[in-house]
Amino acid sequence: MIISAHNIKKSFKSGKTNTLVLNNVNLDVEESKMVAIMGVSGSGKSTLLHILGLLDEPDDGEVLFFGEKVIFSDKKKLAIFRNSYIGFVFQFYSLINELTVLENVLLPTMINGIIKKDYARELLLRVGISEELFDKRSYNLSGGEKQRVAVARALVNKPKLIIADEPTSNIDENNAMLLMTLLRNLQQSLNTTVVISTHSKKIANFCDITYFLSEGVLANENNI
Ligand SMILES: Nc1ncnc2c1ncn2[C@@H]1O[C@H](COP(=O)(O)OP(=O)(O)O)[C@@H](O)[C@H]1O
Ligand SMILES: [Mg+2]
């Protein structure tokens, strides 16, 4: 398993009410698979993906990365680990508008100081971004293009795991299908692992396996 979550509990306090979002979630993700987490808005998909991406700590339970327990308390070590092993694609692209397309893709490489310009260019071409866009500021791009740049950025450090939180929910249907086709092809050819959240069955159909999150409980497609 590349990543496992065991008995994960997570709740959020707002005022005096405590909302239990994840109630004993268990998940084992096999290497080189593409896994979908389906659920309606508010079901806890982002909460779960933030924990799997080591961005947030569960209240209870443990996360294992290649069988080793993740220590959430050492923030600095965790940040370095995350940068080397995990790539992220977010719902609202999270590109830096003032930077160029190429600079955005290179951003995760600047943290470890190994600039991989040639690889960044190659990835951009593979996600269908033409060379004349490389030096344009990213705010000039369409939503679909921005998300494809975000996929290139997520891949630039050759991560073992990609966490994609509703990457298609702000782009139109055609662009969503294009993005998923590209992501699936890249996942297979680069032999990486993807965990993607979505509320769409059509998006989940690109994946090897689908889980459903509802009322804090994660169920396998065979169990519903
Ligand atoms: N940081 C937070 N503080 C308080 N409540 C939160 C926080 N993050 C998420 N929640 C709540 O947890 C529930 C699940 O949210 P989320 O994981 O974002 O669901 P989804 O991604 O499936 O839409 C929602 O009720 C949301 O309001
Ligand atoms: Mg969400």
From TrEMBL:
<keyword id="KW-0067">ATP-binding</keyword>
<keyword id="KW-0813">Transport</keyword>
<dbReference type="GO" id="GO:0098796">
    <property type="term" value="C:membrane protein complex"/>
</dbReference>
<dbReference type="GO" id="GO:0005524">
    <property type="term" value="F:ATP binding"/>
</dbReference>
<keyword id="KW-0547">Nucleotide-binding</keyword>
<dbReference type="InterPro" id="IPR003439">
    <property type="entry name" value="ABC_transporter-like_ATP-bd"/>
</dbReference>
<feature type="domain" description="ABC transporter">
    <location>
        <begin position="3"/>
        <end position="224"/>
    </location>
</feature>
<comment type="similarity">
    <text>Belongs to the ABC transporter superfamily. Macrolide exporter (TC 3.A.1.122) family.</text>
</comment>
<keyword id="KW-0449">Lipoprotein</keyword>
<dbReference type="InterPro" id="IPR017871">
    <property type="entry name" value="ABC_transporter-like_CS"/>
</dbReference>
<dbReference type="InterPro" id="IPR027417">
    <property type="entry name" value="P-loop_NTPase"/>
</dbReference>
<dbReference type="InterPro" id="IPR003593">
    <property type="entry name" value="AAA+_ATPase"/>
</dbReference>
<dbReference type="Pfam" id="PF00005">
    <property type="entry name" value="ABC_tran"/>
</dbReference>
<protein>
    <submittedName>
        <fullName>Lipoprotein-releasing system ATP-binding protein</fullName>
    </submittedName>
</protein>
<dbReference type="InterPro" id="IPR017911">
    <property type="entry name" value="MacB-like_ATP-bd"/>
</dbReference>
<dbReference type="GO" id="GO:0016887">
    <property type="term" value="F:ATP hydrolysis activity"/>
</dbReference>
<dbReference type="GO" id="GO:0022857">
    <property type="term" value="F:transmembrane transporter activity"/>
</dbReference>
